[in-house]
Design goal:
Elements lengths: L16 H7 L2 H4 L3 H17 L5 H20 L11 H13 L1 H5 L6 H36 L5 E6 L2 E7 H26 L1 E2 L15 H7 L4 E2 L3 H6 L2 H27 L7 E2 L18 H24 L14 H24 L1 E2 L1 H8 L6 H10 L4 H18 L8 H7 L7 H4 L2 H6 L9 H24 L2
Parallel strand pairs: 3-4
Antiparallel strand pairs: 1-2, 5-6
Length: 469
């Protein structure tokens, strides 16, 4: 039986159907079709420009690819497993449509540089969507923070109540994490926007191609300098997966915190019902499933990163079939993070905060102990001594079942004569918050400025996204 594979000239017999099934990637790499067609159009135009094929042939190729694009968009395109991948599927149908001109399209290129180009185009497109998703989530945090500058709650270390802070300050901490994510992702575009096409299988080509022309057509900043590296580089995919892992780590930290806050034990927030589910057995339950899923999906995205690092760690130059396994982890991670970003923004906006429960949490746990120590420092006592004095005070209050603010003046004087009535001004949560005016501190004046700054950052981020090609 004659081998019908486009690469089958060397072979005398057909491959086994089991081999075709195991070898094929078209079931998942068909996602790359818009990028494969874009790359092929640019390549055809370049071949004509360099007189490697005729202008008429290039025109027929472009028109044929446009027809295929419309078929795929309408769902009328049949993907053939025997054609292995997205590239051979499209090329095969193109040749059926336009004849021998379609067979000339692959002149001066290989699937190796072709798929590397497709992947870079895919990553560039998805980075823009991811950046937009980050901005939407930043907007949700900033808007919610603006409404809660006056709301106070305990800040925690080791999950123990530590010091009073503004809820807005807490929410803006996540804004900062997302801004670092935004910066990393936007920076990654410099390394994504490098054209591999023209590297051939590994060594370049004997044809007089113009890679700079193709780079401009596809809006790449530059063409890869080394043909071996061009076809074997997946650093840009690994970098994107690392960036996605960091995003999910931030979302997972947030999810864990709000899962805790939504419990009866904390009672700090009430999640919107639309983002929760019930129990099949216990009628009273309202479970934070969306947050739990984000926490769980974080491990899935980490797995994608580790998977590709493991695939690449032992590969000699240049292309190896192992690299076909880069796509499923990448596609899955991108879609997982996009979905997580999109679902969190409206959930945050609709969540209700229980300011009263947050205030109650401030009334226990000696959250003003550091303020008492700071007060003593202002009275001339070295901090280490002040720390020791307040530690004894906390122990005393703990035994009596009272808080520091409940101590009478005669009790305070027993610990140190430096105490005056002015200490009671320091034993107020709002005053404690507003005293922290150091750069980055939780004072309301600082937080209001931070909210204003966040709005400016969001505007700047949106302008950057609008400029991306």
């Amino acid at each position: 039986m004659k081998n019908q594979k486009l690469w089958g000239g060397r072979f005398k017999s057909s491959s086994l159907s089991e081999v075709d099934q195991f070898n094929a990637s078209v079931e998942f790499d068909q996602k790359l079709w818009p990028h494969d067609i874009a790359g092929s159009m640019a390549h055809a135009k370049m071949l004509a420009k360099q007189k490697i094929i005729s202008q008429k042939e290039a025109k027929n190729i472009v028109q044929g690819l446009q027809t295929i694009s419309k078929k795929i968009e309408s769902g009328k395109f049949s993907w053939d497993l025997s054609k292995e991948d997205v590239h051979l599927n499209i090329e095969s149908i193109l040749t059926q449509l336009i004849g021998s001109a379609g067979e000339k399209l692959h002149t001066a290129r290989s699937r190796n540089d072709q798929v590397a180009t497709d992947l870079r185009l895919y990553c560039r497109e998805k980075v823009k969507l991811l950046l937009q998703g980050l901005v939407w989530l930043q907007q949700a945090f900033a808007e919610t923070a603006k409404k809660n500058v006056e709301t106070l709650l305990p800040g925690y270390t080791h999950l123990q109540r530590a010091q009073p802070i503004s809820l807005a300050h807490h929410l803006l901490a996540y804004f900062e994490m997302l801004q670092r994510d935004f910066s990393r992702l936007s920076d990654s575009l410099d390394r994504i926007n490098v054209l591999p096409l023209g590297a051939g299988a590994l060594a370049g080509t004997t044809f007089p191609i113009d890679r700079t022309f193709v780079a401009k057509e596809l809006q790449f900043h530059d063409a890869a300098a080394n043909s071996l590296d061009a076809v074997s580089d997946r650093d840009f995919v690994i970098e994107l997966l690392a960036d996605l892992s960091l995003i999910m780590m931030h979302l997972s930290r947030f999810a864990e915190e709000w899962i805790l806050w939504s419990t009866h034990e904390f009672g700090f927030i009430q999640l919107p019902e639309q983002f929760c589910t019930g129990s099949s057995m216990m009628p009273q339950k309202m479970n934070p499933d969306i947050l739990e899923l984000i926490r769980g999906k974080t491990g899935r995205v980490y797995g994608s990163l580790v998977s590709l690092l493991t695939i690449m760690k032992g590969l000699p130059l240049t292309y190896n079939k192992d690299m076909q396994e880069d796509k499923e982890p990448l596609f899955d991670a991108v879609e997982t993070v996009l979905a997580s970003l999109q679902i969190l923004a409206p959930m945050i906006r609709q969540t209700k905060f229980n300011a009263e429960n947050m205030k109650k949490a401030l009334s226990a746990g000696f959250v003003l102990a550091t303020d008492v120590a700071d007060y003593l420092v202002t009275r001339g006592i070295p901090f280490r001594q002040a720390h020791h004095i307040v530690g004894k005070m906390v122990s005393y209050c703990h035994k009596k079942g009272i808080e520091l603010k409940e101590l009478k003046m005669d009790e305070l004087k027993k610990f140190d004569q430096a105490f005056e009535k002015s200490i009671y001004h320091w034993l107020d949560e709002q005053h404690a918050v507003d005293r922290r005016k150091s750069l980055g501190g939780t004072a309301r004046s600082n937080v209001n400025q931070a909210v204003t700054q966040a709005k400016k950052i969001i505007s700047k981020n949106q302008q950057l996204i609008a400029k991306l090609k």
